[in-house]
Design goal:
The chain has about 160 residues and is of the alpha/beta class. Helices cover about 35% and strands about 20% of the residues. Helix 1 (about 15-30) packs across helix 5 (about 145-155). The termini are close together.
Length: about 160
Amino acid sequence: MKMKGKILIVYYSHSGNTAKMAELITKQIDGTLCELMPEKAYPNDYNSVLQQSKEEIASGFHPKLKNDFSQLESYGTVFIGTPNWCSTIAPPLATFLDNQDLAGKTVIPFCTHGGGSWGRMERDIADLCPDSRILKGLAVYGVNSSEERIIDWLKEIGIR
């Protein structure tokens, strides 16, 4: 399958797992890597970030991002990566999806999790990208030994 336009790999990572997965994807394809950077960083302490994320998700809060997406129109395919937070996407990714027009673009989700797999992420992504073509995503428990799974997934969806 030939992708239209350039490829962007945009992700949010708190612990580094989703960043590692994004880097493994970038290693396999010709794409631009972009880490979402909230204006106010999340706490490092697990319990504190868990509490904050629960509150943000429950209230629908979307943190402001430092990133500039003025060149987004030149990308036809956008990989979107997130950890599974409370069975959904992390608020920084929700901010990106809510504020950027991905209509007509191919969106490819990926996530890391500690046992919750996709939760309700696929539905939430579809709701935030109603006019996008969404390909089958990949959910990975941690990231150890995931490079082969990523290669197989990219072949399965026709990117590699």
